[in-house]
Amino acid sequence: xxxxxxxxxxxxxxxxxxxxxxxxxxxxxxxxxxxxxxxxxxxxxxxxxxxxxxxxxxxxxxxxxxxxxxxxxxxxxxxxxxxxxxxxxxxxxxxxxxxxxxxxxxxxxxxxxxxxxxxxxxxxxxxxxxxxxxxxxxxxxxxxxxxxxxxxxxxxxxxxxxxxxxxxxxxxxxxxxxxxxxxxxxxxxxxxxxxxxxxxxxxxxxxxxxxxxxxxxxxxxxxxxxxxxxxxxxxxx
Length: 237
Hints:
Strand order of the largest sheet: 2-1-3-4
Shape: globular
CATH topology of the largest domain: Glutathione S-transferase Yfyf (Class Pi), Chain A, domain 2
Number of helices: 10
CATH architecture of the largest domain: Up-down Bundle
Distance between the termini: 27 Å
Largest sheet: 4 strands, mixed
Radius of gyration: 18 Å
Structural class: alpha+beta
């Protein structure tokens, strides 16, 4: 059994989709990031970066195995299930490249754009334009990669697709049309039709809401420093 610490966001969907695709048994444990669950000592023992998603795999030769960071989690689940990771050296190399591309480029750029589109108070024209351009650039990189390919790594659906797709799913709410990226739009729609993907995105949908509702939640989500995290952890002990 896998304990899946989760909140319904694009980062959480990466792992919920993978769990649904593989059929590995899991139980979902909500991490209410607006209420500060990510700073509870039990959770930070699993995810020291105080971010979800995270998992604890109870079915390993070494006993319960905690894993944080979505890329590491998807690699573990691919190896555990024997699915969605090419077995040849070149295919594996390319999958790893695009996995790291997502965690270092597409995800962070989309996440920062989302902050300035959805949450930042006041006008931040430079910041919003900066991240909108970077998100657009990343979509252009993906467009070139998908030209002549069904999926990111050739004809086989892989963890490279699973990790990138959630941040492309929300392109329109981020203000980015996919009209200039027809290959990305085709890929996005094909993956969206997969039943396991639909189940992954629907997981915990009753928990969703549009942004922080109180100033306390804004402070928890957007104004953390090393000192404030330490204080928050102390307050939850």
